[in-house]
Write a structure and sequence with these properties.
202 residues; three-stranded mixed beta sheet; rod-shaped; 9 strands; binds copper (II) ion; single chain; 2 domains; four-stranded mixed beta sheet; alpha/beta
């Protein structure tokens, strides 16, 4: 009895003509296609907005870069003139005034085989690209020299004479200049500071 009822529930499945089945299949496919179209049409504005935002971001970045490059003024290198002098600070002659130097200059003393001289001024500051003109006065009766190895500068400073030297400060940094006469090392030195040219315009 139960079997008969079940079979009786689906009599039409076995009696549908093939044309109707094809129509039903077409309807299902069409419905699926419509659903896909709907999904795509719903996603389209999101994709468009994302692309628009990306394009806007890139454009803003390009404009900002262009403006920052355009707004940085270029530094025009200058000519910097300095006058320096060599100065005796604690030398053998000073012992007549400062008695303690007798012991300092003696063998085993803190200034044995040394004398203390200086450049004045001993700090120079320029910008990268500047031409540095130095006029160095040596008023003493001792020989000195001005050595700035980083810029290939090495000039003798004869006694009681004025010596001129020029170079281009073409690299940034802090560089030491000195007199390399053994008796004057390590006391007779100074520093040249070369600032980046961008510092001059900021
Ligand atoms: Cu010297």
């Amino acid at each position: 009895m139960i079997l008969l009822l079940k079979v009786g529930t689906y009599p039409s499945c076995f009696t549908c003509p093939p044309g109707r089945i094809a129509d039903a299949a077409r309807l299902v496919l069409r419905a699926q296609a419509r659903r896909k179209e709907k999904e795509i049409s719903m996603k389209r504005p999101v994709i468009f907005c994302t692309l628009a935002l990306l394009a806007f971001g890139m454009l803003t970045l390009l404009i900002a870069c262009g403006q920052s490059q355009a707004s940085v003024p270029q530094y025009t290198p200058q000519t910097r003139d300095f006058t320096m002098v060599t100065v005796p600070l604690l030398v053998k002659e000073s012992a007549a005034t400062f008695g303690f130097l007798q012991k300092d200059f003696a063998k085993g003393g803190v200034l044995a085989d040394k004398e203390v001289y200086a450049f004045s001024p001993d700090h120079l500051t320029v910008y990268q690209g500047d031409t540095v003109n130095l006029t160095i006065v040596n008023p003493e009766d001792d020989d000195h020299n001005f050595t700035l190895s980083d810029f290939n500068v090495a000039v003798a400073l004869p006694p009681q004479a004025v010596t001129k030297v020029s170079f281009v400060a073409n690299k940034v940094g802090v560089f030491t200049f000195y007199c390399n006469i053994a008796m004057h090392v390590p006391f007779m030195n100074g520093q040249l500071t070369v600032l980046p040219d961008s510092d001059a315009t900021s």
